[in-house]
Amino acid sequence: MKPVAIGRTYSHRVQTNDSHTAARYGNKGVEVVATPVLIGFLETAAHECIRPSFEEGEGSVGTHVNVRHRAAALPGAVVEAKATVTGVRGKQIEFAVEARAGDTLLMVGSHGRAVVDLKHFFARLGVAPPADA
Cβ(66)–Cβ(109) under 8 Å? Predict the structure, then answer.
């Protein structure tokens, strides 16, 4: 892994749709962007934030998520998920994360990722890595 700078930031923008709703995740009748969807957007932002630091064959996996879901967004909203590196301990990277729809803060918190050698990671699971890994 190449060095990761504290303060490095990445934003991931997503045009949401009906497939992103809580109703689609089993919460019948709740037609707003689901909590696990927003968490996924935050994880993507964090992964992309550190991707330039990966050596060949490396990737990242989530290690923890600590967020508060502060407001709802309707399908069709453009959600911007932002991750900022706040700490680096070896291959463990910490982030401050937030998701917004316009000026509305939807979710805020912290997230951790570990940089891993994908061949070793999948070998421990007893499977071959995906072809694109």
Answer: yes
